[in-house]
Amino acid sequence: MLKSKNRVNRFAAASQTASTGRLVFSENGRNHRLDLDYPFRLNFYLKPPPAEITIEEFEGFALDRLQVLRAIEAAALRNKDLKTELAQVLDQHLPLRSNLSKSTDLYEERRKDHISHFVLRMAYCRSDDLRLWFIKQECTLFQYRFEQETMEEKKNFLNYLNLNWKILSSEEKEAIREQLEICSRPKQGMSSSDYVSSETFFEVDFEKVPAMIGNRSVYVRRGKAYVPMTEQINLVMLEFKNYLERALEATAKLLPRLEEDDRLKPILLNVERQYVGKSYGGIDQSNAGSLSASQVDAAVHHHAPLCMRNLHESLRAEKHLRHDGRFQYGLFLKGIGLSAEEALVFWRTAFSNITDDKFNKEYAYNIRHSYGLEGKHTNYAPLSCIKIISGNPPSTGDNHGCPFRHFSASNLENRLQKDKISSNYINEILELVRNRHYQVACTRHFEVTHTGKQVDIIEHPNQYYEASKSTEVPMTTDALAEESMEIDD
C-alpha cells in the first residue's frame, strides 16, 4: 500500500478478511485502465485499492474525504441544503465526475475516492462511536452520488454488483396483483391498479427490508418481500450499509496487524482525532490531576454542558446520585482532570449524609474501579454524546442522560430560561429537539451562551468543556478554589 521495498498492500488484507476470514496480502501493481479498475463513478468499496500509494497520499486523501464527511454532518444537523453544500465541498476536496464528462482525470479522481475511503475505514473502526459516525456519513455520501447518476448508469452499476435481486415477470406479478395493490402507494391521481401495472417489482429476502415491512409498504409471502422499483434506493442503501458494517468489524479485528507498519499508526490516530478533535479514550497525562475537588463547582458551573451541570446540581441538592448518574458524571470529571485521589475527596464530601464506613463499603470501590485501579484495571473513557443519548434512559429518580433527549419540552424550556437564554433562542433550540437534532441543539446552546463563539457540532461533553475553557480569561488556582466555595455556599 505504502511505497516501500516490500510493496505490500495492507488494504487487501482487510478486504479479504471481511469476506473470507483469512489474512491475504496482495501485491497488485497499479493499473491505469479505467474500464478495468473503475468502470463506474459509484463504488461499493468491495475490493482494496489496486496500487501502492505514498505516505503523503495516504494522509492527504483521507483528510480531504474527512472534510466532505464533516460537511455532510454539519449540513444535516444545521438544516442546510445538502445538495448545495455537498456539491461545493466535493468539487473542492473530492471531485468525482461521470463517464459522460470525458475528463482525463477520471482515473485519478476515482483512485483518490477509493483510497480515501479505505484509509478512513481503518481510522474509524476502533470503537462503536467512530463506526456509527463513519457509516452514517458514508451512507449519505453514497446516496447523494447514487441519486446523481442516470438511470442507465444505475442499472449498469447494480448489474455489475450482482446483488441477486429477482425481478418479477409479468405472470408472477399478475399472480399476486391483488396483494400488491393493497400495499401500493401510487402517486396522487393514479389508481393502485395502474400503479402495479406500470411498476417493476423486486423479490428479495424479507430480512432485508424490515422498515418497509414495518410501515406495510411491501407485500410479504413465504419469506420474500416484493419491493417496487420506486423503493430501489432503500434496497441499495441497505446493501451498502450492511456491507460497510461487516467490513468495519473485520478491519477492527485486523488493525493490530495493519499497524505493524510504524508509519501508519500516527497517521491513523491523527485522522481519527479530526472526528471531535480528540477521542477522550484514555487518560490525558497533560491534563491528569489538573483539577482539585475544591475546584469542581466553579469549573462545572462555568464550562460544563447542560447534561453535566444537571447532574452536578442534582448531586449538590440531593447529596446523592444513582449509579448511572455517578458513572456518567464521574467519567466526565475524570476527563477534565480530576484524579482518582481527588475524586474520592469530591464524592465523599458530596455524599455528606452518609457515614465514612458506608461510603467506603458502597461507593469508594466503584470510584477507584472507574480509574482502572480495581478489578480488571479497565481505563474507562468519558461517555460520548452518542452513548449518552442512545444509552439507558433515565427513569423516576434518575438524573443521567441528555437533557435535550430526555427532558420533557416544558422541563427543558424551564431549564433554558434558568440560563437566561432569550425566548427566540429557546424556541430555536426546542425546534431542533423536536426534529431529534439533540447534538446540534446542544451546540446552539453553547453558541448562545458563549457570545460570538461558533464551534463544530458537539459530539462529546468533554469537547464542550474544552471549547468553553478556551474562551475564558485564565484564573489563578486560588481564585478558582475561592469561587468554588462561593458557588457551593
UniProtKB/TrEMBL annotation:
Domain DNA primase large subunit C-terminal: 299-465
Gene3D superfamilies, alphabetized: 1.20.930.80
GO biological process, one term: DNA replication initiation
Listed cofactors: [4Fe-4S] cluster
Keyword vocabulary terms for this entry: 4Fe-4S, DNA replication, DNA-binding, Iron, Iron-sulfur, Metal-binding, Primosome
UniProt-annotated binding residues for [4Fe-4S] cluster: C307, C385, C402, C442
Alphabetical list of CDD domains matching this protein: PriL_PriS_Eukaryotic
Superkingdom of source: Eukaryota
Keyword 4Fe-4S: yes
Pfam families: DNA_primase_lrg, DNA_primase_lrg_N
MF terms (GO), sorted A to Z: 4 iron, 4 sulfur cluster binding; DNA-directed RNA polymerase activity; metal ion binding; single-stranded DNA binding
Stretch forming the signal peptide: none
Xref: InterPro entries: DNA_primase_C, DNA_primase_lsu_euk, DNA_primase_lsu_euk/arc
GO cellular component: alpha DNA polymerase:primase complex; nuclear envelope
Cofactor notes: Binds 1 [4Fe-4S] cluster.
Function of the protein: DNA primase is the polymerase that synthesizes small RNA primers for the Okazaki fragments made during discontinuous DNA replication.
Annotated family: Belongs to the eukaryotic-type primase large subunit family.
Protein name per UniProt: DNA primase large subunit
Gene designation per UniProt: pri2
